[in-house]
Amino acid sequence: MGNLKKHFKVIAAVMVVCFFVMAESNAAAPQDGLYYFNAMKEAVIEVIDEHQDLFNKTPDGAVKNPKLTGKNYYRSVYKIFKTIIGADFSPKLLKGVKDPVQISHMLCSLLQAGRVATAKNQKIINTEKDGSVKLKKFIPAVFGRLVAERYLKKTGVAMKQTTLGKGIYKARNPYNYPDEWESTQLDKFTTTNWPLNKGIGEDLGSEYRYIKPIYIKKACMSCHGEPIGEKGPYGHLKEGYKVGDIRGGISIILEVSH
User: Fold this and answer.
1) Is 252 in contact with 109 (CB distance < 8 Å)?
2) Residue 209, SS3?
3) 3-class SS at 4?
4) Which of 112, 156, 173, 226 is most enclosed, with most CB atoms within 10 A?
């Protein structure tokens, strides 16, 4: 068991290094907020459309549910996003904006909204047209990872979902293990009376690092709720979270100009 833990720690360290190497090698000149917002919108739609065969096509190739097509899916994501960031928000307000604090909060909130939409859509995603249920494994964590990977290729901006876990249960995927900076910030989220949806940012030379908490929703409970230690639908052990608990954070590295 000890060797297995060491093995996973090595994998996690390698993946964290790769994450930052990719971010550095793909880094582009800083853009305005509208550019980054539109790139995220494109990434969400592309990821959803590219996975239609997995969760939204019948055996004969027909669309199972129009709510799960790319543009419609994004509309539901955007609706949730506006409840997080403010109903008065409009993408055009980001034109010319290069404030890394504002951009980072907006991008992390948009990815957070996509995770929430994916959690809320699990019943539709997993239910076949004949009413039978088949787990597709297209869950919030998978959605977030795929969008972050696509976004990195589009913009050079590295985004990551991360968590300290709960009790003896750590991140389920080594890709999501926090680095030292993320661990410090996540600890603040979970050990203090942290304000809802408030992030933490820090200017580190040519980079701005930011992390925003993500929360357990009702739709997350079948995988992450109680009883602790019971296997969830995908075989992972439940950690005993309650609705509203902080699950972890969405972390971003944004290149800035000085």
Assistant:
1) no
2) strand
3) helix
4) 112
Helix residue ranges per DSSP H, 31-99: 33-50, 52-55, 70-85
Residue 54 burial (C-beta neighbours within 10 Å; 0-12, 13-18, 19+): exposed
Q: Cα separation of 161 and 141, whole Å?
A: 8
Q: Render pLDDT for 177-221 as a digit per residue (tens, 0 to 9).
A: 999 999 999 999 988 889 999 999 999 988 999 999 999 988 889
Cis peptide before 227 (omega within 30 of 0): yes
The model's pLDDT over 1-57, given as tens digits with 9 standing for 90+, comes to 444 344 434 444 444 444 444 444 444 568 999 999 999 999 999 999 999 999 999
Q: 42, 37, 137, 140: which is closest to 89 by C-alpha?
A: 37
C-alpha 163/C-alpha 169 separation (Å) is: 10
Distances (CA, A) of 57 to 64, 111, 128: 5, 25, 9
pTM of the model: 0.85
Query: CB of 237 within 8 A of CB of 230?
Result: yes
Phi, psi of 256 (to 5 degrees): -125, 155
In the block, tokens 């709510």 appear at 67
Q: What are phi and psi of 128, to 5 degrees?
A: -75, 170
The SS3 assignment for 129 reads coil
Contacts of 4 (CB under 8 A, 6+ apart): none
